[in-house]
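Standup notes
- HV: blocked on the assembly model, inputs below
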Amino acid sequence: MKLKSVAVLKAAVIVCTVLSVAVAVAAPWIVAWYAKIRPLEPIMSTTLLICYYICMIPTLIALYSMLRLLIHIQKKHPFEHIALKYLGIISWCCLAVAIVCASGAYWYLPLAFISGAMVFLFLTVRVVNSCFLVGAMLQEENDLTV
Amino acid sequence: MPIIINLDVVMAKRKISSLELAQQVGITPANLSILKTGKAKAIRFSTLDKICRILNCQPSDIIEYKEEE
């Protein structure tokens, strides 16, 4: 069985990384343009910029972890403990983004919605991580069955 | 675990090497080593059947239960 979807996901992760970096470079102009079409107070645009740049760190870490995890899945070793470690990193990165956005929501309220979405994503990834943990235990038992 | 594997004792009595037994049973030497060292979590009936047939012994000669103190 060919894992075509994994290859597509890998390409999507790389595209997302490139887009994130591109948006980071263009962020001051994007925020300035947004401030023109929607009335934004200077504190709001500053908050948006600061939150985006802080969130870039966990985002890039999560994207790198996703890529490593997909490589493990492609090698047909998804239930190794290192794969679980990557899932854990992704979930904590989601929580980090949620915390940053929640802090920024004090100055720019729409960030609260992103924060809520990231908390939901954090919980989802933790549930998947628990499933993978059971899978890793079953895999270990299978490997040690003679 | 209170299950003890005495495979090496039976192998020594029958004067058969690990490589030879692994080849005859049809498992890898690495898997036989897992079984001999007691790291195995389970043993298939088919594997046990082949081992008993090749070593001309009973499962109880290979697997022993010792109560933990």
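- HV (later): unblocked. The mean pLDDT of chain A is 91. The radius of gyration of chain A is 19 Å.
- Next: hand off to the docking folks.
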